[in-house]
Amino acid sequence: MSTIKQITSPEAWEQHVSSLPPSTLLILSFHAPWAAPCAQMATVLSTLASEYPVTEPPSTSWVSIDAEELADISENYNVTAVPFLVLIRNGQVLETVSGSSAVKVRNAIETHAKQAANSGASSGQPAANGTNGGAGAVDQEDIEVSEKDPEKQKEELYKRLGDLVKAAPVMLFMKGTPSEPKCGFSRQLVAILRENAVKYGFFNILADDEVRQGLKEFADWPTYPQLWVDGELVGGLDIVKEELVSDADFFKPYSVKANGDDIRASA
């Protein structure tokens, strides 16, 4: 079974890339040790990697990079949030996946691994098609059951939302991303977090309508943005401003020094 290799230096990265044949699908994962979603994604990727046999030449190669430690490599691939997955073949970026959706990651990897197998680019047949243990088939059955059973679907959504609001000590659910806010309120709240040097996770609710609608009910709060601290809802822009007026040190426990540490956790 395949395993994930940790790359710890630019030299090791260059050496690894140069050693791969053009047909190999390189699965590159960027992470940060402080971001809880990255730990979850590491487990997902480790499980997926185990479904792909080691072949000669290698059909897949799985590597992980600390986005903050190797900032130059992160910049090359436009990494602004973690976890962040890049799929590469023959030096060309095929697809990127930002965030911690196991379904999106699995689908992306399976799609490009199968393309290689179908075209004959790889001598090894990846196990993601269910030929090795059937793990993919079981996951698909679970998904189908969830879609058919509204109660189970809601239960799973609430579990996901419960994990998302705790994905980082400070979590911002916003319209757009910190670099491209899609509403004025989200833009102002991002500015407040930056002014207070807060290290935070974020979720773009425009990219996932299930979360967008579900979180309103889960939080009993009908509008966005929403700011959560230690798994508890603080509120929207007005509430955050009120908190800072009454307590100027409200964000102090979550602030970091201005050391260029601008990579955020994307749930």
Brief descriptors of the model:
267 residues; alpha/beta; Glutaredoxin; 2 domains; 6-stranded mixed sheet; 5-stranded mixed sheet; 9 helices; globular; metal-binding; Thioredoxin_domain; Thioredoxin-like protein; disulfide oxidoreductase activity
Structure description:
With 267 residues, this protein is α/β, with parallel strands linked by helices. The chain folds into two domains: 4-142, Glutaredoxin (3-Layer(aba) Sandwich); 163-266, 3-Layer(aba) Sandwich (Glutaredoxin), CATH 3.40.30.10. Helices cover 41% and strands 21% of the residues. The chain has nine helices and 13 strands. The strands form three sheets. Strands 4-13-10-7-11-12 form a six-stranded mixed beta sheet. Strands 1-3-2-5-6 form a five-stranded mixed beta sheet. Strand 11 (226-229) and strand 12 (232-235) form a beta hairpin. Helix 5 packs across helix 6 (150-164). The two termini are 28 Å apart. Residues 120-147 have low confidence and may be disordered.
Task: Provide a short characterization of the protein structure.
It contains nine helices and 13 strands.
CATH H-level superfamily title of the largest domain? Glutaredoxin
Total of DSSP H or I helical runs spanning 4+ residues: 9
Helical residue percent band: 40-55%
Annotated CATH topology of the largest domain: Glutaredoxin
Structural class: alpha/beta
Biggest pleated sheet? 6 strands, mixed
Nearest-integer average pLDDT? 83
User: How many domains in all?
Assistant: 2
SSE topology string: EHEHEHEEEHHHEEEHEHEEHE
Spans where pLDDT lies below 50 across 5 or more residues: 120-147
Order of strands side by side in the largest beta sheet?
A: 4-13-10-7-11-12
Q: What proportion of the residues form beta strands (DSSP E)?
A: 15-25%
Q: What spatial form do the alpha-carbon principal axes imply?
A: globular
Please identify the oligomeric state.
single chain
Computed Rg:
20 Å
How many beta-strand segments?
13
The CATH first-level class of the largest domain comes to Alpha Beta
Note the gap between the termini: 28 Å
Q: At CATH's second level, what is the architecture of the largest domain?
A: 3-Layer(aba) Sandwich
